[in-house]
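Appendix B. One record, verbatim.
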Amino acid sequence: MTTVATSRYAEAHAKQHGPGDERPTALQIVKDEQREGNMADKVVFITGCSSGLGVETARAMKATGATVFVTARNLEKAKEALGDILSGDRIHLFKLDLESFDSVRSCVNEFKSMSNSLNIIIENAGIRHVPFGRTSDGFEKHWGTNHLSHFLLLELLRPMLLASSAPEFCSRAIIVSSTAHRNAPMDFSDLN
């Protein structure tokens, strides 16, 4: 006899985007998993925290008790969006403009000056539907921002992420994406 495990959220996902949409928030999942205040010894790094998923992810990770480092290209917009999430000494906001490898390196250096461990990185930031342009490093903006800069960020933080991993809590790298790439297939003969 085969048993099938079902998600406690399967029913909540039955009616998406409209009346009856009761999908849980990230904060609700933290509560359901009994993680509130249970990650005080963990460090979390999140990109793209000036709107949407980044803000809600920051809210949920703060509720775990972890030390949370959030980033945004526009600090004023992030401060407004994050609001009271920024209160307390266990959450820190850094400037990170993924259109610049120098900004990535600078942000990593600032982070390393404040923390000697990293348990979770959530690469959430991204752009879409912007006019053609190039990053300060010469790459097409979508390619440079959504892919290359996040790759560089993860490579620079990977040693710290691996060193912080332990059998009782393996470090994690979470890459947030969407289906937007389907609207513009990749031309591998011309990445720009």
